[in-house]
Write a structure and sequence with these properties.
The protein is of the alpha/beta class and 344 residues long. The chain has 11 helices and 14 strands. The strands form 2 sheets. Strands 8-9-10-7-11-12-13-14 form an 8-stranded mixed β-sheet. The structure holds nicotinamide-adenine-dinucleotide (NAD).
């Protein structure tokens, strides 16, 4: 297929704006032909961002799939979490290639049925794990695989920021039924797949510890997860909507028996055992959403496999659900603080 793929964006809210920017940056590979959202306002906003023009607008993705039929090659799902599985099932049944935001879905029963449906239909499914395209992650992986720091022993993967107070209150992210959990299944999804990617082995054991410090949501707003891999690597995920990344630390830190590599975004540092100063490398900046859209379009056009498909989507979800399950009792010990504590 040499023409741009004809894509329908399902969900025109917050993150779809980054997906749309990726579509605009790769107009030679992908064209948005349809938008679907229950919100008229978000449909208009996204349509305007994409330059207006002949973009069909729908409120119901089933109607869109049936009316547009073979005028759509692929869908890009940017919906609340509980709607991922239903939209995936409908798109796969219609024979469309699928790019779906994280998490793939919210429970393992749905995940197993998605894996089976994708296999049965023989369609392409790409998990939108955009941070796989982060330059620091890719360069660390390359150096680790080349043996630069020896045998890996420990990895920490972090994603922390302060989400404004009330950011999720009363919205779908505050409800376990639509969110499928708390912060870990949302922002925490990224450091989870980054860790698994760097460890390069199956997960053997998982233990979670959750906190809820300042968000009026049913799930946690902060998670700390310990992971042991079958190759002996010890891993840690730390992720939060209630604090910034601890000062002096990095999104990624890997220690091997010969040295260590750490970094964030497009900057990494390598320090060999016995050395006092790490050597810094500044890599070209990459917009991970733009890179992700280009990769998906290439997979559809060339019939190649995406970096992460449904199996990887299922495995990240399994680890996250296990971490939440093992953090038994955290809800009772982490009350929601709706008010600022009194100063005296
Ligand atoms: N990769 C990332 O860094 C990143 C960042 C933010 C969000 N996300 C993911 O993107 C997805 C969407 O998150 P968001 O922040 O854009 O949420 P959002 O609430 O801003 O957008 C969701 C959109 O879905 C629409 N919608 C709800 N029900 C619908 C239905 N039945 N049919 C059609 N449209 C419907 C809403 O009107 C809204 O416009 C989530 O999976 C989230 O985890 C990923």
């Amino acid at each position: 297929m040499s023409n741009p793929i004809r894509l329908a964006l399902i969900g025109s809210g917050g993150i779809s704006s980054a997906h749309a920017a990726g579509i605009l940056a790769h107009s030679d590979k992908v064209k948005c032909v349809a938008l679907c959202d229950v919100s008229e306002e978000n449909l208009e906003k996204r349509s305007a961002q994409l330059g207006g023009g002949p973009i069909a607008k729908y409120h119901d993705w089933r109607k869109m799939l049936s009316e547009m039929g073979s005028d759509i090659d692929a869908v890009d799902i940017c919906l609340p979490h509980h709607l991922h599985a239903p939209a995936i099932f409908d798109a796969v049944a219609a024979g469309k290639a699928v790019l779906c935001e994280k998490p793939m879905c919210i429970n393992l029963d749905e995940a197993d049925r998605i894996v089976a449906a994708v296999e049965r239909a023989g369609v392409l499914y790409m998990s939108a794990h955009n941070q796989l395209f982060t330059p620091a992650l890719q360069e660390m992986k390359r150096r680790i695989d080349a043996g630069a720091i020896g045998k890996v022993r420990w990895i920490r993967s972090q994603d922390c920021f302060i989400a404004g107070k009330g950011a999720f209150e009363g919205k779908w992210r505050s409800n376990l039924k639509s969110q499928g959990g708390g912060e870990l299944i949302d922002t925490g999804y990224h450091p989870s797949y980054r860790l698994m990617y760097l460890a390069g082995a199956e997960v053997a054991a998982v233990r979670g510890n959750m906190g809820r410090f300042e968000h009026a949501i049913q799930g946690e707003d902060t998670a700390s997860v310990q992971v042991r891999f079958t190759n002996g690597v010890m891993g840690e995920i730390f992720t939060s909507w209630a604090m910034t990344r601890p000062y002096g630390t990095h999104d990624l830190h890997v220690v091997g028996d010969l040295g260590e590599i750490f970094g964030t975004g497009n900057r990494i540092w390598q320090l060999m055992r016995g050395e006092k100063e790490p050597a810094e490398t500044v890599l070209p900046v990459v917009d991970t959403f733009t890179a992700q859209i280009a990769c998906f379009a290439d997979c559809v056009r060339n019939g190649t496999q995406p970096p992460h498909g449904p199996q990887e989507g299922r495995e990240v979800l399994r680890i996250i659900l296990k971490a939440a399950e093992s953090a038994d009792g955290w809800q009772e010990t982490a009350p929601v603080q709706l008010e600022e504590p009194a100063l005296a």
